[in-house]
Amino acid sequence: MKALNTTALILIVIGGVNWGLVGFFNYNLVDSIFNQGSFLARAIYAIVGLAALWTVVVMGSKSTNKDK
Questions:
Q1: Predicted confidence band of residue 67 (pLDDT cuts 50, 70, 90)
Q2: Which of 1, 5, 15, 31 has the fewest CB atoms found within 10 Å of its own CB?
Q3: For residue range 22-47, what is the model confidence (pLDDT) as tens digits?
Q4: What would the pLDDT profile of 9-21 be if each residue is shown by its tens digit?
Q5: Which is nearest to 49 in space by CA: 10, 1, 23, 11?
Q6: What is the reported pTM?
Q7: Nearest-CA neighbor of 30 among 12, 55, 8, 22?
Q8: Residue 51, class by beta-carbon neighbours within 10 Å (0-12 exposed, 13-18 middle, 19+ buried)?
Q9: Exposed e or buried b for every residue in 10-45, given b needs 16+ CB within 10 A?
Q10: Which range marks the domain in which residue 13 is found?
Q11: C-alpha distances in angstroms, 55 versus 18, 24, 28, 29, 42?
């Protein structure tokens, strides 16, 4: 489980860096590497999104466990 959480965190950081590049420099690294709108680019976005959802669930469960 720890490996999954670490992988999810790394993917979230990668996604955050990509969004930072888009916001500050109008440069999308994922689209540059995998071609804009390609299946692979969309798959990367989906995986990063799933990692973010996973982290929200894990952090939510940790915060409710502290309350008990």
A1: low
A2: 1
A3: 999 999 999 999 999 999 999 999 99
A4: 999 999 999 999 9
A5: 11
A6: 0.83
A7: 22
A8: buried
A9: ebbebbeebeeeeeeeeeebbbeebeeeeeebeebe
A10: 2-67
A11: 18, 25, 23, 23, 20
The number of beta carbons lying within 10 Å of the beta carbon of residue 65 is 8
pLDDT at 62 (0 to 100): 80
Residues across the chain: 68
Query: What's the domain count of the chain?
Result: 1
